[in-house]
Amino acid sequence: MTSQETTTGPGTAGQAVRRAVIVTGGSRALGRATTGRLAAEGCDLALCGRDPESVETAAAELREQHGSTVHAECLDVLDEAALDGFVRRSAEALGRLDGLVACAGGARGGDLLTATPEDWADTYRLNVGHSALALRAAVPYLSRTRGSAVLVASVSGWKPAPPAQYAAAKAAQIHLAASLARELGPRGIRVNCVSPGSMLIPGKGWDRLRQQDPEAYRAFEGEFPMGRLVAPEDVAAVIAFLVSDQARAVNGANVPVDAGQNAPSAYGY
Fold first, then answer.
1. Which of 32, 159, 161, 201 has the maximum number of C-beta atoms within 10 A of its C-beta?
2. What SS3 class is residue 268?
3. Where are the domains of the chain?
4. Radius of gyration over every alpha carbon of the chain, rounded to an integer in angstroms
5. Close Cβ partners of 240 (under 8 Å, ≥ 6 residues apart)
């Protein structure tokens, strides 16, 4: 079964229904590529983000371009009550839940000597804490459909690169997926992790480097055997596969989508 196909769930009496997936951070960058891929494969969606305009724009485009039912909310995933409520409202609005993609993430603070304890705590909460809380809220719904979750980590979680608080949080996220796969497996829920390599996203860090320091950017391309950075669409395709029933035997895995990248930093290990 692919994401393009319909599935059946409890109480449907064999009636075909559309799969429903939540994507946190689903209005921009990799999150937006992921919601677009899932919508193109026939999924209904719920997404959240911090910027009202991007959330509204993404939802409108998904409805118009793919005919998807979309539940969208503006929130910060560090707000635990708001995140918990978003997951529950999304499942109710969509009528079911087949997948959760914890895509929101990032880093707070600089290097070890300048980052504050609050920066470390917020980076952990933003990546690991939000993933765990969203999945906890989703468990009652995913267990009904034998659904799955995908946590978006990073190549930095297992190939050392600064800042250390981000690398440590991403490493924890990878282990979180493996641990929860064992814990939630008896409930019929799969949990996997995707570790994207450095992605070329318009307006973001590597795109700015390409424009501001072309020589450094060309040197960084040498960290990739095929000479190019990862596209968000490449990662979104793997996420869509892991959410689908085609990946029903994939559980507790960390799937690198890094094009064979060596150092995850333009300045080496």
1. 32
2. coil
3. 20-199+231-257
4. 18
5. 3, 34, 37, 38, 41
CATH numeric code, 20-199+231-257: 3.40.50.720
Q: Record the pTM.
A: 0.91
Q: How far is CA 201 from CA 65, 129, 204, in A?
A: 22, 25, 5
Q: Which of 1, 13, 58 is nearest to 31 (CA)?
A: 58
H or E stretch covering 102: strand 99-102
Question: Which residues face 47 on adjacent strands?
Answer: 23, 72
Contact by Cβ (8 Å): 16, 95:
no
Q: Taking the CA atoms of 193, 198, 202 and 204 in sequence, report the sign of the dihedral they define.
A: positive
Q: Under a CB-based contact definition with an 8 Å cutoff, are residues 134 and 82 in contact?
A: no
Q: CA 80 to CA 82: how far, in whole Å?
A: 5
Q: Which helix (H) or strand (E) holds 254?
A: strand 254-257
Indicate which residues carry an active-site annotation. 166
CB of 261 within 8 A of CB of 159?
Answer: yes
DSSP string, 13-68: TT--B--EEEEETTTSHHHHHHHHHHHHTT-EEEEEES-HHHHHHHHHHHHHHH--
